[in-house]
Request: fold
Amino acid sequence: METTLRRRVWKELDIRESGPGGPSVTNIVVGVMIALAVITVIVETEDTIYEPHRALFGLLNFGFAIFFTIEYALRVWTMVERPQYAGRFGRLRYMVSFTALFDLVVVCSFWVAIGATDLFVLRLVRMCRILMLGRLGQLSLASLELASAVGKRRYELLVSMSFALIVLVIASVFLFVAEREAQPEQFGSVPRALWWSVITLTTVGYGDVAPVTVMGRIFAAVTALASIAVIALPTGIFAAALSEAFQVRRARAEEAFRRDHPHHGDQQTDVSRKDP
Reply:
């Protein structure tokens, strides 16, 4: 009886067990509560709203604390139903996983905030709740599939990031050599020149720092052209990963539809045969 109940609760909580219809009602409720909790902590930063309604915000936070504590406890209780956490120490392995520790930090932030008197500590634990936005990704099958697709391309991403780092360092060194005498405050060291390189390579271009020497401008032009490749490489990799995630999701949806409607294809074949 306990195992049956635990499995039913697990299927309601685990997004991976969602059917073709999407997330379960429980996961939808959790998502709404996360959104409300984040909105609450954002509004709390406005003193003109928070101070007159301090008691209301305290009540809301107490309710959030109870809700997410129960949700965390249920996840720990039911997670042994997932094969990777089965066994004697399955719950312990789940509790020390990144996802569970992440949830625990958020849950603790609610309880610490209730009893906190120090203003700095209170603000710090409130900001911890913004991390709950990451939970919304965990409640989306699409985001899980995207994360899996991106993980498969981690080596390509590592190569592109390494290339960006190399270009960043080379550009900083060249600008340091070319501009250090003309602009010692802005380019007097490689770390100072690094600020300009980051802003240029990311195509932000604040304009607060710019080379003035001929050699510096030449290096700046080369760096600006190189930034096209620096931005294009990871962008293309992420785009391919996103496309693959959508294809996987579409294939799973079609497979689930064929499983639920085994005779649908036969009916279409029969109809097509009757057409002249």
Summary: The first helix runs from residue 2 to 13. Residues 154 and 237 are 9 Å apart (CA to CA). The mean pLDDT is 81. The radius of gyration is 27 Å.
